[in-house]
Amino acid sequence: MTRDWWKHLILILGALVVIAPFYMMLSYSLKSPGEIDRGEGGFFGRQEMMIDERCVALRDPNRDEVASAAKRFPGLTDREIRDALITEAEADCAMRPAVFNYTMAFTEAPLLRYLLNGVIVTVSIFVIQVLVALPAAYALAKLRFWGREAVFSLVLFCLLIPVHAIALPLYIMLAKLGLTNTYAALVVPWTISVFGIFLMRQFFMTVPDDLIDAARMDGMTEFSIVWRVMLPTAVPALLAFAIFSVVAHWNDYFWPRIVVTGSRELFTPPLGLREFKGDGDGSFFGPMMATATVIVCPLIVAFLLAQKRFIEGITLSGMK
Amino acid sequence: MADLHIDGVVKSFGETQVLKGISLDIRHGEFIALVGPSGCGKSTLLRIIAGLESQSAGDIVIAGRSVAGVRAADRNLSMVFQSYALYPHLSVADNIAVPLRMRTMGAVQRLPLVGRWMPGAAERNREIDAEVRKAASTLEIETLLDRKPGQLSGGQRQRVALGRALVRDPAAFLLDEPLSNLDAKLRVQTRGEIAELHRRLGATFIYVTHDQVEAMTMSSRIAVMMEGQILQCDAPDLVYEDPEDIRVAEFIGSPKINILPAELNGGSLRVLDRDIARLTRVADQPGIRLGLRPEALRLSGADSVLTGVVAHHENLGSEVFAQIEVPGLSERVVLRADPSARRRLGLGATVGLDFDIGDALLFDTSGKRLRPVIEAARAAHQVA
């Protein structure tokens, strides 16, 4: 233990570097704009009541309202009634900074809609990726056919192509097909994952041939072997792939930014961050960070659940 | 009734020929052991029978119907694998039910979740359940039905694999070294159980093993395979007592048969420069070999054919095996003796060994059995 203290020190430093941005995100999502600007208030901020200037501005009383409120304030001048109304509005619009930030996140932008879009897009991508990758990986790992090695080399070669290099041709193809600004544009380019095929192929290589032969003897077709035998044994590998796939596409900012240009209806969660990117009048960091926190939460929850499944795993000892 | 004929089956992987024209007729209800050293092609032959591998030439006929081009599932055979190959994600009951489900239920009825609500599915499921229970009770694994394969011991998994094979009524059972992953004690026990199961079911069993003891104890006929050929296919006692080929004689029997160099010269059979017997009606041959089972040798006096020094001995309680170093022989001679002879077989003791020429097996230079010779030898011996 004492001999290895430096290892722990390095690991702790590394962990701090990784956690720092998350710390800032969480902290900013709780603080008032003033505290964020001045960099004070520690992690939670002082959580003093703050007044939402925009809320007050929206309730700025006009002449009719002042006139109709005259009954409630007998004997006061119009000016005094107006001041009283503003004070009332300020009281109504006062809230804790944390509440303010998170309320803003959900009310200013249709964040729930964005989250739903994110779920639709990532789940569609993952499901189709699995539908394509499992049979492909099974064929590459377990079937003997002419040109198998060549096809597998192509898969490996495709792993080397960076997404950004083919983004423009992809965009043009989608545009010519009239698919920009649709869910299809967000999903289709990612449905064939060479990484998924590669990963599952490597896993299938470890599945004993006897198991597949047993399934054949039991009367299964190759297609049922993929879904009834390979899929259940591959759950741990699929979870690993799911983490890569879901994290990559849930967090993707680049591709949705390119193909979703008009309607906010199709925005994915990361695009939602743009809502608080005030161009001229400064950024709303509090609500922006609150949005970021909300976006990250489903992933963290999903990971914690998947991690438990990882450890449980499906033991392959039945075959040994 | 399902007879199984293997007709001139050849299998080549590229240039190498793994099976060189195998022919074998298996009658319904037989227990055939395919035995041979690893790499002799016995597993390949079994996989070809099963339909998991295709032959390069030749034909397999099951119940009078050629199965060339028929896929494994449609040949109505079941197979037990060395690794058991149980589905790790299914319970024991589901594992056993798979072959029935795949055969008797439609694709829609098999769908997960919704399948059970399809018309007829509930009734089929009940029937399958009953058959699974029947198979489980045959193998005494009813208590394990809800467990996953990962929670079972090797012997229990082996039974489940057997259960999956016998739950439907196949034309033949194919077993690929099903005992080799079990420990020695369990292997002996399971050996007896499989033989008993065969008698009870009266079905055809084709059993691949490299262990000659398994082959000897369980089968009605043994097919000894070497280098892609069946050297001999006979009942276990015939294969042991009357081998056609020196390789069969050497492979079957533990401890191994003693092989002594011999020659035929002027009608006289000579071993270690001593005349053993006079033979008539045989051509002279140098470099023949004489095979003697350990139990064919007996201890004798000083003036014996073989005289040597005890180099090692193993007392098994009911019998004693002694390895005897005989000058002039490259390999030690193994003798099986009665425990009463233990005192004479102390390490370093000099002993004489004798045998009856009638118990000796003679093989020619190429390893083929010399039958007329031994009969002539016996006659000559009696005359002398």
Automatic annotation (TrEMBL), chain A:
It comes from the Bacteria. GO terms for cellular component: plasma membrane. The chain crosses the membrane at residues 9-30, 114-138, 150-171, 183-204, 225-250, 284-306. The keyword rRNA-binding does not apply. Keywords: Cell membrane, Membrane, Transmembrane, Transmembrane helix, Transport. It is found in: Cell membrane. GO terms for biological process: transmembrane transport. It is a multi-pass membrane protein. The keyword Zinc does not apply. This is Carbohydrate ABC transporter membrane protein 2, CUT1 family.
Automatic annotation (TrEMBL), chain B:
Gene3D superfamilies: 2.40.50.100, Nucleic acid-binding proteins (2.40.50.140), P-loop containing nucleotide triphosphate hydrolases (3.40.50.300). InterPro entries: AAA+_ATPase (IPR003593), ABC_transporter-like_ATP-bd (IPR003439), ABC_transporter-like_CS (IPR017871), ABC_transpr_MalK-like (IPR015855), ABC_transpr_MalK/UgpC-like (IPR047641), Mo/tungstate-bd_C_term_dom (IPR008995), NA-bd_OB-fold (IPR012340), P-loop_NTPase (IPR027417). GO terms for biological process: carbohydrate transport. It holds the Pfam family TOBE_2. Keywords: ATP-binding, Cell membrane, Membrane, Nucleotide-binding, Translocase, Transport. CDD domains: ABC_MalK_N. Residues 4-252 form the ABC transporter domain. One of its GO terms (molecular function) is ATP binding. Belongs to the ABC transporter superfamily. One of its GO terms (cellular component) is ATP-binding cassette (ABC) transporter complex, substrate-binding subunit-containing. The keyword NAD does not apply. It comes from Roseovarius litoreus. This is Carbohydrate ABC transporter ATP-binding protein, CUT1 family. It comes from the Bacteria.
